[in-house]
Amino acid sequence: MSEEFRLQRENDLLKQLISVMNTTTKLDNILNYLMDLVTMVTTSEAAYMLVKDVVEGDFLTVRAVAGLKKAQTIGKEWPMDKGIVTQCYLSGGHKIVNSPHSDPGFDPAICKMLGVDIKNLLALPMNADGRLVGGIGVVNKKDGMSFGEEDVSFAMILADQAASIVGNETTFKSAEARIKRFNTLMQVSEEINKQNDLHQLLDIIMESAKMVMRAEASSLFLLDEKAQELYIESAQGDAGEQIKQFRLPVGKGIAGWVAQKGKAQLIPDAYEDDRFNSDFDKKTGFRTRSIVCVPMFFKKKNVGVIQIINALDKEAFEEDDVPYMMALAGQAAIAIENVRLLQSNKELFLNVVMALVKMIDSRHSFYNGHSLRVAKNAVAIAKQLGVPKDTIEKVQVCAFLHDIGRTQIPDFILAKKGPLSEQEWAVIKRQPLFGAKFLQGIKMLEYAVPAVLYHMEHYNGKGYPKGVQGEQIPLIARILNVSNSFDAMISPRPYRNPMDKATARNQISTKAGSQFDPLIVKAFLAAFDAGQI
């Protein structure tokens, strides 16, 4: 199972949870739905949740179930010294038992209480920020299968969410307020997971933290593992821009301490805490009063730290503010790693594309570097047009690939020094068709097919291979037409010498409205005159 698939599956599970939480504020309904999700992701027959409802009691209580009769099971008490799920509750570890009746820790009385014969069992602890609040039993993998570590991975995502809800139940002021605020954080996390730009993502996280927590300022530190320093990647508030330049050694200040120890901290009065580093305040004139600072962990790996500063509606932050920040930090860590993974995959893919393009261009010396130059110039034109960042990335990839159909053109035609025959010219005109066909079926490059197919079309309809005109030609193809033509003009070919750049610039200018889109020509000229071409 790939990391990207696993992250997507995690996000899907959380989105399903968000969906039901938006329709009810009843805690028990949400917990029962969580059990439904547990049985779904583990393909099991049933699941039950045991929680520690009474502090002084020596038993756990069935709080939620799936695949079992609610009326007969919910509210039943189970001794804390018996059974495998209680072992996991006490130890904090999970356990897979595929032959429970031969396991010394198994108590068959649980089968009678639940009304089901347990053939195999997955037991999970419910850990609410370090405090064990209960355990979950997942019963009978379907089709005679055995539970495995993949079941543990996905079920623990939901167990952690259940633990967060149950663990904070007594702290929140009312059930309705508790669920509404939790809903807000989950909705924020859903917005976070839509982003694929890391900088924009982090700004959304911190603006959301400041808004949800009613704080004067917020900041997000990412960990530079090599330097063992925290650097501020995003900061919201009056001093936000000023403090982005600061770096903080791990272990120094509140944020450095949290990064080092991995423990959330509530600081009612910053200047009364010996760990507080007042350098930020001295350099910015900002006055820090209260702080909530929490670590961001992804798969037990420290990603960074989030902190909110100065409560707006009260004198200082309170204990019940910490779980909300921990929930946000957990989702932020997943989202950050997701974006990093996507970026890493994108870079790897781009490197493969560039290697392919270089190989194609190197077949003939007069094409060497052609596609890379076309891409550079096409990006400069796209930036002059003010197109969105994701479109610029597509322009670059399409430019790299615009001549990929050249691999189907015989060398004797490409290297011919004299005029092409009618038959040879007909083959040349098929190059865009060859390129588009090559890209079809490659899901990651579907957007490049029309750009490659139409990049030799003329604005007046006299190009090839389809003879379309004007805005029937896709925007990226119109950009490539100009960029490709300019580089062809200034490059040597077997049948002619290269033009100088000024002459080629003028050629492009005079063909606005005929071969080229006037809007694209205007952007090209601006980029050329600015030294970007």
Please report the distance between the alpha carbons of the first and last residues.
44 Å
Q: Tell me, rounded to a whole number, the average pLDDT.
A: 83
What structural class is derived from the secondary structure elements? alpha+beta
Number of helical segments with 4 or more residues: 21
Give the total of beta strands: 12
Overall, the morphology is: elongated
Strand portion: 15-25%
Q: What is the topology, as strand order, of the major beta sheet?
A: 3-2-1-6-5-4
Radius of gyration: 31 Å
Write up this protein:
- With 533 residues, the chain is of the alpha+beta class.
- Helices cover 48% and strands 16% of the residues.
- It has 21 helices and 12 strands.
- A 6-stranded antiparallel sheet has the order 3-2-1-6-5-4.
- Helix 1 packs antiparallel against helix 2 (27-42).
- The longest helix has 40 residues, at 322-361.
- The model is unreliable at 170-175 (pLDDT under 50).
What are the defining features of this structure?
12 strands, six-stranded antiparallel beta sheet, alpha+beta, about 525 residues, elongated
List the helices and strands and how they pair.
Elements: H1 3-21, H2 27-42, E1 44-51, E2 59-66, H3 70-73, E3 77-79, H4 84-91, E4 95-97, H5 109-114, E5 121-128, E6 131-141, H6 149-167, H7 175-192, H8 198-212, E7 215-224, E8 229-236, H9 240-243, E9 247-249, H10 253-261, E10 265-267, H11 279-284, E11 291-298, E12 301-311, H12 322-361, H13 370-385, H14 389-401, H15 411-414, H16 422-428, H17 431-439, H18 448-454, H19 475-490, H20 501-510, H21 518-529
Antiparallel strand pairs: 1-2, 1-6, 2-3, 4-5, 5-6, 7-8, 7-12, 8-9, 10-11, 11-12
Helix pairs in contact: 1-2, 1-7, 1-12, 2-6, 7-8, 7-12, 8-12, 13-14, 13-19, 13-21, 14-18, 14-19, 17-18, 18-19, 19-20
